[in-house]
Specification:
This protein has about 170 residues and is of the alpha+beta class. It is about 40% helix and about 25% strand.
Protein backbone atom coordinates (compact mmCIF):
# COMPACT_ATOMS: atom_id res chain seq x y z
CA UNK A 1 0.00 0.00 0.00
CA UNK A 2 1.26 3.44 -1.01
CA UNK A 3 1.54 6.16 1.54
CA UNK A 4 0.34 9.64 0.59
CA UNK A 5 2.34 12.43 2.05
CA UNK A 6 0.89 15.79 2.91
CA UNK A 7 3.25 17.46 0.39
CA UNK A 8 1.88 15.34 -2.50
CA UNK A 9 -1.68 16.40 -1.82
CA UNK A 10 -0.56 20.04 -1.56
CA UNK A 11 1.19 19.93 -4.97
CA UNK A 12 -1.75 18.13 -6.57
CA UNK A 13 -4.15 20.73 -5.28
CA UNK A 14 -2.26 23.72 -6.78
CA UNK A 15 -1.05 22.35 -10.10
CA UNK A 16 -0.85 24.79 -13.04
CA UNK A 17 -4.03 25.03 -15.05
CA UNK A 18 -4.12 26.59 -18.53
CA UNK A 19 -5.72 30.05 -18.77
CA UNK A 20 -8.62 28.81 -20.91
CA UNK A 21 -9.81 26.48 -18.18
CA UNK A 22 -9.21 28.82 -15.30
CA UNK A 23 -12.04 31.21 -14.56
CA UNK A 24 -11.32 34.78 -13.63
CA UNK A 25 -13.15 36.46 -10.85
CA UNK A 26 -15.92 38.73 -12.15
CA UNK A 27 -14.02 41.96 -11.42
CA UNK A 28 -10.94 40.87 -13.37
CA UNK A 29 -12.97 39.79 -16.41
CA UNK A 30 -14.63 43.20 -16.55
CA UNK A 31 -11.29 44.94 -16.22
CA UNK A 32 -9.89 42.94 -19.14
CA UNK A 33 -12.82 43.88 -21.34
CA UNK A 34 -12.35 47.55 -20.45
CA UNK A 35 -8.64 47.37 -21.30
CA UNK A 36 -9.42 45.81 -24.68
CA UNK A 37 -12.13 48.39 -25.37
CA UNK A 38 -9.71 51.24 -24.63
CA UNK A 39 -6.65 49.84 -26.42
CA UNK A 40 -8.24 48.48 -29.60
CA UNK A 41 -9.13 51.89 -31.15
CA UNK A 42 -5.63 53.18 -30.40
CA UNK A 43 -4.15 50.07 -32.00
CA UNK A 44 -6.27 50.53 -35.15
CA UNK A 45 -5.28 54.20 -35.40
CA UNK A 46 -1.62 53.18 -35.20
CA UNK A 47 -2.11 50.60 -37.94
CA UNK A 48 -3.91 53.11 -40.20
CA UNK A 49 -1.22 55.73 -39.55
CA UNK A 50 1.51 53.27 -40.43
CA UNK A 51 -0.26 52.33 -43.67
CA UNK A 52 -0.69 56.02 -44.51
CA UNK A 53 2.96 56.87 -43.92
CA UNK A 54 4.06 53.82 -45.92
CA UNK A 55 1.83 54.82 -48.84
CA UNK A 56 3.15 58.39 -48.94
CA UNK A 57 6.75 57.20 -48.55
CA UNK A 58 6.32 54.76 -51.44
CA UNK A 59 4.92 57.56 -53.61
CA UNK A 60 7.91 59.77 -52.69
CA UNK A 61 10.28 57.00 -53.78
CA UNK A 62 8.40 56.66 -57.07
CA UNK A 63 8.60 60.42 -57.74
CA UNK A 64 12.36 60.43 -57.07
CA UNK A 65 12.94 57.32 -59.19
CA UNK A 66 10.97 58.86 -62.06
CA UNK A 67 13.24 61.91 -61.99
CA UNK A 68 16.27 59.65 -62.09
CA UNK A 69 14.85 57.64 -65.01
CA UNK A 70 14.26 60.82 -66.99
CA UNK A 71 17.78 62.07 -66.25
CA UNK A 72 19.28 58.71 -67.23
CA UNK A 73 17.48 58.87 -70.56
CA UNK A 74 18.68 62.42 -71.19
CA UNK A 75 22.26 61.67 -70.12
CA UNK A 76 22.78 59.20 -72.98
CA UNK A 77 23.76 61.84 -75.55
CA UNK A 78 23.47 65.52 -76.38
CA UNK A 79 20.56 64.76 -78.72
CA UNK A 80 18.73 62.80 -76.01
CA UNK A 81 19.33 65.63 -73.52
CA UNK A 82 17.57 68.09 -75.80
CA UNK A 83 14.58 65.76 -76.41
CA UNK A 84 12.24 66.93 -73.64
CA UNK A 85 9.31 64.84 -74.89
CA UNK A 86 11.16 61.53 -74.56
CA UNK A 87 12.65 62.53 -71.20
CA UNK A 88 9.13 63.27 -69.93
CA UNK A 89 7.87 59.95 -71.33
CA UNK A 90 10.73 58.01 -69.69
CA UNK A 91 10.02 59.62 -66.33
CA UNK A 92 6.26 59.03 -66.49
CA UNK A 93 6.73 55.40 -67.53
CA UNK A 94 8.83 54.81 -64.43
CA UNK A 95 5.91 55.80 -62.17
CA UNK A 96 2.70 54.87 -64.00
CA UNK A 97 0.59 54.93 -60.81
CA UNK A 98 1.23 58.66 -60.36
CA UNK A 99 -1.05 60.09 -63.03
CA UNK A 100 -0.78 63.67 -61.76
CA UNK A 101 3.02 63.79 -61.99
CA UNK A 102 4.60 66.71 -63.82
CA UNK A 103 8.08 66.42 -65.33
CA UNK A 104 10.32 69.42 -66.08
CA UNK A 105 13.61 68.62 -67.86
CA UNK A 106 16.30 71.28 -68.12
CA UNK A 107 19.51 71.01 -70.13
CA UNK A 108 22.49 73.20 -69.23
CA UNK A 109 25.88 73.66 -70.90
CA UNK A 110 28.85 75.66 -69.66
CA UNK A 111 32.52 76.10 -70.40
CA UNK A 112 34.25 75.44 -67.08
CA UNK A 113 37.91 75.65 -66.12
CA UNK A 114 38.45 72.34 -64.30
CA UNK A 115 41.28 73.70 -62.12
CA UNK A 116 39.68 76.98 -60.96
CA UNK A 117 35.95 76.34 -61.51
CA UNK A 118 35.56 79.58 -63.47
CA UNK A 119 32.93 79.65 -66.22
CA UNK A 120 33.23 81.19 -69.67
CA UNK A 121 29.92 81.10 -71.48
CA UNK A 122 26.75 79.11 -71.22
CA UNK A 123 23.89 77.88 -73.36
CA UNK A 124 23.72 74.59 -75.17
CA UNK A 125 22.72 76.17 -78.47
CA UNK A 126 25.74 78.50 -78.58
CA UNK A 127 28.55 76.36 -77.16
CA UNK A 128 30.28 74.12 -79.64
CA UNK A 129 33.81 74.36 -78.23
CA UNK A 130 35.62 76.11 -75.40
CA UNK A 131 38.97 77.92 -75.16
CA UNK A 132 41.99 75.82 -74.14
CA UNK A 133 41.87 75.43 -70.33
CA UNK A 134 38.07 75.17 -70.36
CA UNK A 135 35.95 72.09 -71.08
CA UNK A 136 32.28 71.77 -71.98
CA UNK A 137 30.21 70.46 -69.10
CA UNK A 138 26.72 69.49 -70.17
CA UNK A 139 24.15 68.42 -67.61
CA UNK A 140 20.53 67.36 -67.62
CA UNK A 141 18.32 68.17 -64.65
CA UNK A 142 14.89 66.58 -64.30
CA UNK A 143 12.42 67.83 -61.70
CA UNK A 144 9.31 65.82 -60.94
CA UNK A 145 6.36 66.58 -58.71
CA UNK A 146 3.10 64.83 -57.97
CA UNK A 147 0.09 65.51 -55.78
CA UNK A 148 -0.70 62.43 -53.72
CA UNK A 149 -3.97 61.93 -51.87
CA UNK A 150 -3.82 59.91 -48.67
CA UNK A 151 -5.57 56.55 -48.35
CA UNK A 152 -7.65 57.87 -45.44
CA UNK A 153 -8.37 61.52 -44.87
CA UNK A 154 -7.92 62.24 -41.20
CA UNK A 155 -9.15 65.51 -39.70
CA UNK A 156 -6.36 68.00 -39.13
CA UNK A 157 -4.17 66.60 -41.91
CA UNK A 158 -3.94 67.91 -45.50
CA UNK A 159 -6.23 66.43 -48.16
CA UNK A 160 -3.22 65.93 -50.46
CA UNK A 161 0.57 66.09 -50.31
CA UNK A 162 2.85 67.44 -53.04
CA UNK A 163 5.97 65.31 -53.45
CA UNK A 164 9.01 66.44 -55.43
CA UNK A 165 12.00 64.70 -56.94
CA UNK A 166 15.13 65.94 -58.65
CA UNK A 167 17.97 64.28 -60.53
CA UNK A 168 21.02 65.86 -62.15
CA UNK A 169 23.38 63.92 -64.41
CA UNK A 170 26.24 64.72 -66.73
CA UNK A 171 25.52 64.10 -70.41
CA UNK A 172 27.75 61.58 -72.14
CA UNK A 173 29.90 62.98 -74.89
Amino acid sequence: MKKIFAADSFIHKFQFQPFAFRSLPRREAGQSMLEVALCLPIFFILILGTAEIASIAWSAVQVQNAARAGAQFGAQSRAAASDTTDITTAAKRDAPALTTMTVTPNQSCQCINTSTGATAGSGCATITECPSPYVIIEQIQVNTSAAVTPLFHLPGLPASYTLAGQAIMDVEK
